[in-house]
UniProtKB/TrEMBL annotation:
<protein>
    <recommendedName>
        <fullName>Peptidyl-prolyl cis-trans isomerase</fullName>
        <ecNumber>5.2.1.8</ecNumber>
    </recommendedName>
</protein>
<comment type="function">
    <text>Prolyl cis/trans isomerase with specificity for phospho-Ser-Pro bonds.</text>
</comment>
<dbReference type="InterPro" id="IPR051370">
    <property type="entry name" value="PPIase_Pin1"/>
</dbReference>
<feature type="region of interest" description="Disordered">
    <location>
        <begin position="1"/>
        <end position="35"/>
    </location>
</feature>
<dbReference type="InterPro" id="IPR046357">
    <property type="entry name" value="PPIase_dom_sf"/>
</dbReference>
<dbReference type="GO" id="GO:0005829">
    <property type="term" value="C:cytosol"/>
</dbReference>
<keyword id="KW-0697">Rotamase</keyword>
<dbReference type="InterPro" id="IPR023058">
    <property type="entry name" value="PPIase_PpiC_CS"/>
</dbReference>
<comment type="similarity">
    <text>Belongs to the PpiC/parvulin rotamase family.</text>
</comment>
<keyword id="KW-0413">Isomerase</keyword>
<feature type="domain" description="PpiC">
    <location>
        <begin position="6"/>
        <end position="121"/>
    </location>
</feature>
<feature type="compositionally biased region" description="Basic residues">
    <location>
        <begin position="15"/>
        <end position="25"/>
    </location>
</feature>
<dbReference type="GO" id="GO:0003755">
    <property type="term" value="F:peptidyl-prolyl cis-trans isomerase activity"/>
</dbReference>
<dbReference type="InterPro" id="IPR000297">
    <property type="entry name" value="PPIase_PpiC"/>
</dbReference>
<dbReference type="Pfam" id="PF00639">
    <property type="entry name" value="Rotamase"/>
</dbReference>
<dbReference type="GO" id="GO:0005634">
    <property type="term" value="C:nucleus"/>
</dbReference>
Length: 121
């Protein structure tokens, strides 16, 4: 079954990895020293604080993603491009499809870590 372009969404995200993440390394922490010492609660607190800064207008999503996200998409301001169903981890996909364009999710948990998602298309 092919998905038409209308089935696709576009999103950016900020990922904070923690001790429970399936891959405990990232572009900004290649040895995983920080990630291995970050609890899920710490990651959630950091992400909530970053989300508040974005929602309040104090910071831009792209700038925060570039600086803080553990995903390699950080170099694109968190942009993941377009994707369809069954291309992302289920909780991430469901959260993205539930957002309206321009909305930012609450905290989303996946095997990769904790995310906030901005639906861009």
């Amino acid at each position: 079954m092919s998905s038409s372009s209308s089935d696709k969404v576009r999103a950016s995200h900020i990922l904070i990895k923690h001790q429970g993440s399936r891959r405990k390394a990232s572009w900004k922490d290649p040895e995983g020293r920080i990630i291995n010492n970050t609890t899920r609660d710490d990651a959630v607190s950091q992400l909530k604080s970053l989300r508040e800064d974005i929602v309040s207008g104090k910071s831009k999503f792209e700038d925060v993603a570039s600086r803080y996200s553990d995903c390699s998409s950080a170099k694109r301001g968190g942009d993941l491009g377009s994707f369809g169903r069954n291309q992302m981890q289920k909780p991430f996909e469901e959260a993205t499809y539930a957002l309206k364009v321009g909305e930012i999710s609450e905290i989303v948990d996946t095997d990769s870590g904790v995310h906030i998602i901005l639906r861009t298309g």
